[in-house]
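Lab notebook, bench 4. We co-purified these components, and the gel suggests they stay together. Before we commit to crystallization screens, I want a quick structural picture of the whole thing.
Request: model the full complex, all chains together.
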Amino acid sequence: AQTVTQSQPEMSVQEAETVTLSCTYDTSESNYYLFWYKQPPSRQMILVIRQEAYKQQNATENRFSVNFQKAAKSFSLKISDSQLGDTAMYFCAFMETSGSRLTFGEGTQLTVNP
Amino acid sequence: DAGVIQSPRHEVTEMGQEVTLRCKPISGHDYLFWYRQTMMRGLELLIYFNNNVPIDDSGMPEDRFSAKMPNASFSTLKIQPSEPRDSAVYFCASRSSGVKNIQYFGAGTRLSVL
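Here is the predicted assembly.
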C-alpha cells in the first residue's frame, strides 16, 4: 500500500518570503500522480499543483512550484512571495495512474505572518 | 459550473439517529468519491463510484455506513445508526475520466454526533 508522509505538522513564514513544505511517499509503482491540495479555514479542498511521475520537469503554477525527486520519493512544495491568503493546511497526495484512490499525507499547517 | 455541491454544510444529530449527507457532482463527471476527514485518521477514502456503480467500498468503516448513486447528478452517504465516533468532516469529490485524475472537492459536511 502507498503511504505519504509530511514530517512538518506546522510551519510559519513572513509575508513575501519563500517557504518549502516537505513530502515523501512510498510506492512500488513506476508511474503515478502527485498532488498538493490546500485547505484554508473555509474547509474547501483546493488543488494547488499536480505532477506526473513520468515527467522529469518540475511542475509550476505561478508562485507555486515543486521539487520532484523520483529516486528519493520526495515531492516538496515551494511557495514564493508568500501571501496572507496562503495561510492554510497543505496536503500532499498520491494516486496510481491505474487507479482513482487519493492517498493523503497528514498535512502541514502553514501560517503566513504579516 | 457551480462545482461539487454538498448539503448540509453542518449537521448536528444525536447518537442513534439516521444521518444522510448529499452530493451533487460537477456535470459531466463520471467518477464520484466520498472521503472522511478526522484528526485521528486524516483524510481517507470511503467509497467511489464510476458511472453510478460502486467500484471500491473498502474504506467504508462498517455496515452502519451506506452510499448510493441513483443517477449521474446525485449521491448520498447514509449513517444508520450514528455514533459519536462518526463525527468528522465528510467530503464529496468528482472527476472526469477525460481529465488526468484531477479530483474536485465539495466544501464538505461537518457532522457532529452528540
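The longest strand of chain A covers residues 88-96. Worth comparing against the SEC data before the next meeting. Chain A touches chain B through 20 residues (CB under 8 Å).
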